[in-house]
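Example record

One chain of 181 residues, shown exactly as stored in the release files.
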Amino acid sequence: MSTETVTETKPENPMRTIKLAKVTVHINVGKSGEMLEKARKVLGDVTGQKPCTKQAKKTVKDFGISEGEPIACLTTLRGERAAAFLKRGFEAVGNVIKQSSFDDNGNFAFGIKEHIEIPGTKYVPELGIFGMDVIGTLERPGYRIKRRRIRPAQIGKSHRISREEAIKFVTENFGVRPREA
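Predicted structure tokens for this chain:
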């Protein structure tokens, strides 16, 4: 018998891996009607998914908004579609995102001033130009316990994603350079 020593490296804990959970794309028009329908069409064309409308939560007389009036549209992307859209979204802002855009829970957000800046998007004069907000959510395996219906629980403090971990994930996977605010 030979007495070889096998040195195995301990594999990384699979529960500590970070993944992109979802990307939410949001356009706020501020009023219902034709403008909102145009925004829905633009959002559907850009994301390739049917958007839903959101209603105003309260009445604001100065802006002419009443409670319950549809004023915005959004869509949530998951999986490969979310990653592909996020790459295009980062290209629209020059692959640079502020460090202040990251929060302490593994989320980040940035705005796109004009939807025609997104690569592969054509300008349609009948629809106009819309800006949009892009919100990314990162999570680890095990975050389901927060959302489950039976016995939901909180995520432990050591299992949450910190700002530094989120910045590192986005930098490595999407080639984005963070900059100071």
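Notes: The CA atoms of residues 44 and 160 lie 32 Å apart.
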